Amino acid sequence: MKVLVPVKRVIDYNVKVRVKPDGSGPDLANVKMSMNPFDEIAVEEAIRLREGGQASEVIAVSIGVKQAQETLRTALAMGADRAILVIAADDAETDIEPLAVAKILAGVIEDEKPDLVLCGKQAIDNDMNATGQMLSALLGWAQATFASEVRIDSGKAVVTREVDGGLQTIGVRLPAIISVDLRLNEPRYASLPNIMKAKKKPLEEKSAADFGVDVSPRLQILKTTEPAARSAGIRVASVDELIAKLKEAGAV
User: Fold this and answer.
1) What is the CATH code for 2-219?
2) What are the residues whose beta carbons fall under 8 Å from the beta carbon of 99, sequence distance 6 or more?
3) pLDDT tens digit string along 72-95?
4) Which parts of the chain fold into alpha helices (H)?
5) CA 248 to chain CA mean position, Å
6) CB within 8 A of 2, min separation 6: which ones?
7) So where are the chain's domains?
8) Is 117 within 8 Å of 177 (Cβ atoms)?
9) Residue 208, Cβ density class (10 Å: 0-12 exposed, 13-18 middle, ≥19 buried)
10) CA proximity to 174, closest of 104, 106, 113, 107
11) What is the pTM of this model?
């Protein structure tokens, strides 16, 4: 079984994002970039499937700028077998929209013919949560979203999903698209020897034009603002005063 894992280069989750003075978007100057945390979980799960003898090959794919090579090398250092970089933008501030990403991935899948696609449920930069679902629709494949547990059994994937009311377990026939949630696993750290080995693993470069996909944006960002500063609280002298204040605020 061949497993394909899309990964995205995003601002590191430990970085406090700043907005440009003109409000045109986040300031990426001298900002640390890393693999999207949900995608990292997907890479880990794919590697575990291979280590368990259920997958024969793990392929990492990234769509974006040339600098995404670093993100793919991280996936290779974690244990992916090879990587594909689809260069679809020249500027790191250009975010390729989910539909264009899904169309490019559909082209990659047509070439590679994987049995399973594991992807993060969403990217932490735009929180779209749409690429996996769009890819499933384009391919006509089964899908399972928000996976907290994945088990492969007799040509199908048994997936436990996190839903509003608790957990839901479903079975989907392969080939399938599965988007993963936080509680699926704990991604491993890439060791120094594996980081060195990753430099010799194959990384193929392609372009969006190779798949005939137009990556022109359909959405226009009008303005980006930072969240409003949290207002100061007040002190109360007693429980009765606290309850009175809560009633005034409509919280009780």
Assistant:
1) 3.40.50.620
2) 130, 134, 218
3) 999 999 999 999 999 998 888 888
4) 37-51, 69-78, 98-112, 131-139, 192-198, 239-249
5) 43
6) 55, 56, 57, 59, 112, 113, 114, 115, 116
7) 2-219
8) yes
9) buried
10) 113
11) 0.87
